[in-house]
Amino acid sequence: MNRAGERLLNGLVKENPTFVLMLGMCPTLAVTTSAMNGLGMGLTTAAVLALSNLFISLLRKIIPDRVRIPAFIVIIASFVTAVQLLLEGYLPELNKSLGVYIPLIVVNCIILGRAESFAYSNPPIPSLFDGIGMGLGFTVALTCIGAVREILGSGELFGYGLMPDSFEPIRIFGQAPGAFFVLAALTALQNLIKEKRKSAGKSYRKIGSGCSEDCGSCSDMGCVRRFYGEKQTGKQGSRDKRQNEERDGGQDENRDERRKGNRDGKQKETRGGRGKGDRNEGQDDGGVRQDGGRDTGTDGLEYVDLEEEER
Questions:
Q1: Residue 42 sits in the same domain as residue 120
Q2: pTM, rounded to two decimals
Q3: Radius of gyration from C-alpha coordinates of the chain
Q4: I need a labelling partner for 238 at 20 to 30 A (CA). Which of 33, 38, 69, 95 fits?
């Protein structure tokens, strides 16, 4: 459970999809006009993210690698359709306010990114908690942005008056530019807190999204080892190592063949050059004749034999 909590913390803080990874900016900026809209959009995305991660992980050995992206979209679209029907039946006002952004969850880069980088290569349990963690992180981020925009733009929070009557709402925060202002301010605040914790000696090393320590340059199954240890992932690591060795061995053989071919070609050129030089020397010797003690070469010049002149 501690490792499951680590995955939740990773999505909430260390790799928050909004404030750290900067993913899903379209719904983040469009629907966060109020805290309720942000909360509804975040929870909807979190439900789809957790369920799609779980099912993609369960089907990861069945889905062909070449068609994995279309398969991901079909699975995600199924859950999005179910969630949209539930919102239409039980929360029609929220469904109306979110509008077209609910169907667009199908192509949300957060969900597709987690499916590709984590769920498709990890067991179901860590994939489920990874989806829950990322979904909660997205929900918290959207709710915070919506709350700040609602307070400054209308003086309310979740529809209840919060500011005194003398407060004059700042209308720009209820419009599109206000979303950029609030997102930038909250991201800067999050970075400030992170730097202060680092200077205090707190570890802010990324857990890793199914890879080593950084989701931007992943190369192995780091998170799986954190959940299940080296023993259960040793077989997978051995297979990957063997595949890498076979690939490297094939590359070495091809490199040796190319070197051998180049060496043979150079030897042939050398032998050809030597034969040509011998033929040229023979032609030069044959083209020189003796004429009264004077040698006349093929170039038409006369060469005088000094010993013959003295005699």
A1: yes
A2: 0.63
A3: 37
A4: 69
